[in-house]
């Protein structure tokens, strides 16, 4: 699949649920309305949809959500897709999780063929963790990370950088993560979906964080790529890696290789734009994939050049009405 700007689309993110057992302040309101269950694709349909993308050249799939591990029987999908790694056309299957259920699932994830996971963790302070996630229990997440490493999964920590909330913990998180052989990636808050708080107040430009870190650490650019938008530096003092996902200070669209499908079978060609394509109708209309393939091709042919996220006092409303938990970031 090649889009109108010559970019090869080889990476699919599959959001298997919009539900979650946390209510992170930058992601959701406390009282969210979730999609009615009958709207959701079954796990078999999600696998068939993913397989159609693999047949079209997708070689990397990330399972995300909402919280993917709260979807009932999600392992049947993960095992099905895991079976397509190698000769089945998939190079890699990965997962993004909040870690709350990892203790239970770590071994099964590894057995299914997953080798790398991203765990979102914005703080190691139990009270602050509660404040940010509203419903989360830090001890469960830390136990989940232990279980993942014990099961042989490489763990990357994703930390949303929040002004005045966790910015003073970045140095500690870097030392902790790298000390446990985990990369740390910092993410700028993106203006997606109504939340209860003030996004402008939460926004911390990572250009500033990097400049501050460079005062006490030796950071050298690293070519390492994971298929996602993070750009990495090596940190001489910790011997590990630090990534930056900077949709606002540095737009990463020129090298975009990905599209996202939601749990209702809606395809988003860009995280930062509203245009979408309904794949559920062609998927259900026939058991061969001809109509589905036509719909996918038509969607890729209108993948936009990029997003135009903006956060400042004049743009207070979210750039996009949908929440990140629908598309999974
Ligand atoms: N529940 C899983 C988790 O938290 O890892 C997977 C889905 S979550 C939507 C994926 C990632 O998006 C998480 O790392 C989360 O911190 C991040 N995220 C959510 N809302 C965001 C926002 N408005 N701006 C930037 N990152 C956001
Ligand atoms: Fe749930 Fe992940 Fe959103 Fe937090 S960031 S509310 S864990 S979907």
Low-confidence stretches: none
Major sheet: arrangement of strands? 7-8-9-6-5-4-3-2-1-10-11-12
* Name of the level-1 CATH class: Alpha Beta
Distance between the termini: 21 Å
- Number of discrete domains: 1
In short:
This protein is an alpha/beta fold and 329 residues long. It has helices at residues 43-55, 74-82, 102-111, 126-133, 138-150, 170-179, 199-202, 206-216, 280-285, 290-300, 324-327, and strands at residues 11-15, 60-64, 92-97, 116-120, 154-160, 183-187, 219-222, 231-235, 240-245, 258-261, 266-268, 276-278. 30% of the residues lie in helices and 18% in strands.
Describe the structure.
- With 329 residues, the chain is an alpha/beta fold.
- Helix content is 30%, strand content 18%.
- It is built from 11 helices and 12 strands.
- It is globular.
- The site of iron/sulfur cluster has 12 residues, from loops.
- S-adenosylmethionine (SAM) is lined by residues 20, 26-27, 64-65, 67, 96-98, 120, 158, 160, 187, 189-190, 192, 324-325, 328-329.
Question: Which helices and strands appear, and what pairs or packs with what?
Answer:
Elements: E1 11-15, H1 43-55, E2 60-64, H2 74-82, E3 92-97, H3 102-111, E4 116-120, H4 126-133, H5 138-150, E5 154-160, H6 170-179, E6 183-187, H7 199-202, H8 206-216, E7 219-222, E8 231-235, E9 240-245, E10 258-261, E11 266-268, E12 276-278, H9 280-285, H10 290-300, H11 324-327
Parallel strand pairs: 1-2, 1-10, 2-3, 3-4, 4-5, 5-6, 6-9
Antiparallel strand pairs: 7-8, 8-9, 10-11, 11-12
Bound molecules: S-adenosylmethionine (SAM) and iron/sulfur cluster.
